[in-house]
Each structure stands twice: as C-alpha cells, then as structure tokens.
Automatic annotation (TrEMBL):
Record domain Expansin-like EG45: where: 38-142
Keywords (A to Z) from UniProt: Signal
InterPro entries xref list: Expan_Lol_pI, Expansin/allergen_DPBB_dom, Expansin_CBD, Expansin_CBD_sf, RlpA-like_DPBB, RlpA-like_sf
The keyword Signal is annotated on this UniProt entry: yes
Family that this chain belongs to: Belongs to the expansin family.
Signal peptide: 1-17
PANTHER family per record: EXPANSIN-B3, EXPANSIN-LIKE A1-RELATED
Transmembrane residue ranges: none
Domain named Expansin-like CBD: residues: 156-238
Protein name: Expansin-like A2
Length: 259
C-alpha cells in the first residue's frame, strides 16, 4: 500500500506544474491548422472544431507525455506596436519538439494576437517573443465527451479518446467498469488523449477519471457513458464535465494579474 501511495503522489505531482504563472518564450506558426490536429494528441480533424482553429503545439514539458493535451493557455506577443495586450486563447493539440520555442501556433492563433490591421506584419515576423499562462478551459454547456477509436476490436479491446475537458486539470488515470458493477478495470494511456484496455467489461460501460488537484488527486465518475452496443468512431456524451482547477504551490505568481 505504501508503494502505491508513493507512486500516486509522484504521478499527481509530476503531472502538475506552475504553468498558471506567466512565462516568457517565443512562438512560431504553421501555415495549416491541420498540422496541429494530426499529431501527438490524437485528436485528428476533430481538433479543428475545438476552438475555432486557435490551436497550439506545446513543448514537451507542456505536452507532459500526453496529459497536457486539451489544456488551454492565454498567449500574447510582446511587441506592443503589432499586438494586443489581451492576446488570444489557444488549446494544446500537439507536441512541439523545438526546444527553442514553447509553442508553435496555428496561423489563425498567431494572427489573433495582432492589433487590427497588423496581422500580416505579425506573420512577417515568423517568430515572435510571447508570454503565456495556463487558464481554465470552458466549453459552455458541452460535457466531457468520449470517442471510440477505430482501432478498438469489440469485445476484447477498447480504445477511447477524451475531448472537451473543462477546468484546469489533467486526467492521469482512467478506470472502466460495467454499469452497476464495482469491478473496475484500469486503462492505460496509449498516447496523447487516447486510453485503452485489453480487458473490456461486457455490457454498458461507466468510467471514472483520476484528475490532478495539486498534491492530491480526485475521482470524477461518469455513470452511464458507452451503451452495450458501442460503435467504432462514435462519440458519446459522458454526462459530466470536469470544472476543477488544480491547486498548485505557485504562490505568489499565480495570484498576480496579467499586466
């Protein structure tokens, strides 16, 4: 039991960082938003509908072995003659392997930082100095959704992708069980936002999610998610939304306002 507790503490602690503080870096852009939807998070073309194509690829520490997929950030360029003070909100949908840049943005996100009439001037820069901080994701009345991946092989293998996670946490554990059963089966992160298991319970399925909460974790239970006749490629409403904000030991920087 002590070993499990230590492992859980490491898992939760390593999945959180003080990214709600303001960080300084540089950002570039891809000319095609699709370049940020087909990569390391596994969202595919669905990512293009997440945030009006305001997408980002994050450096490895932000991607966080896939736990950072779907995280939201406020980002702004620091050139006040070209860019607004507010910047824009982006969603992390891919990993950026260029360690000189924390972010590679979609062209729409890159130009969204610009003052009116300055979009082309910002693009001409190619790479700009930016600052960013993590913010909670908000999807209105939309719940956390579950997509059954085509690589699933019913009834012996199930792979699912989680989308539209609100709040400011990471999913670091997933269990699945038949509805009404307490015999939970642990799933593994395949990559990015995709989790899988080769021990698929029969019948309709429920899920529970372990999400970060600073130096602890909490469970979120979705009681009725997949029907017994779940289909490949189908998207299901989990019936719940994750709205929490992980409490991190970031004081005092997380208490400051964006000036």
């Amino acid at each position: 039991m002590a070993v499990f507790i230590c492992f859980l503490f490491f898992l939760i602690s390593s999945a959180t960082a003080c990214n709600r503080c303001v960080h300084q870096t540089r950002a570039a852009y891809f000319t095609r938003a699709s370049a940020l939807s087909s990569g390391a998070c596994g969202y595919g073309s669905l990512a293009l509908g997440f945030n009006s194509e305001l997408l980002a690829g994050g450096v490895a520490s932000l991607y966080n072995d896939g736990a950072g997929c779907g995280a939201c950030f406020q980002i702004r360029c620091k050139n006040k003659t070209l860019c607004t003070g507010k910047g824009t909100r982006v969603i992390l949908t891919d990993r950026n392997d260029n360690n000189q840049l924390d972010f590679v943005l979609s062209i729409k996100a890159f130009t969204a930082m610009a003052l009116q009439g300055m979009s082309q001037h910002v693009l001409d820069q190619g790479i700009v100095d930016v600052e960013y901080k993590r913010i909670p994701c908000k999807y209105g009345n939309r719940n956390l959704t579950v997509r059954v991946e085509e690589l699933s092989q019913k009834p012996r293998y199930l792979a699912v992708k989680f989308m539209y996670q609100g709040g400011q946490t990471e999913i670091v554990g997933v269990d699945v069980a038949q509805v009404g059963s307490s015999n939970w089966v642990s799933m593994s992160r395949n990559y990015g936002a995709i989790w899988d298991t080769g021990r698929v319970p029969s019948g309709p399925l429920q899920f529970r999610f372990l999400v970060t909460a600073g130096y602890d974790g909490k469970w979120v239970w979705a009681q009725h998610v997949l029907p017994a006749d779940w289909n490949l490629g189908a998207i299901y409403d989990s019936g719940v939304q994750i709205t929490g904000i992980a409490q991190e030991a970031c004081s005092p920087c997380d208490k400051g306002t964006w000036k």
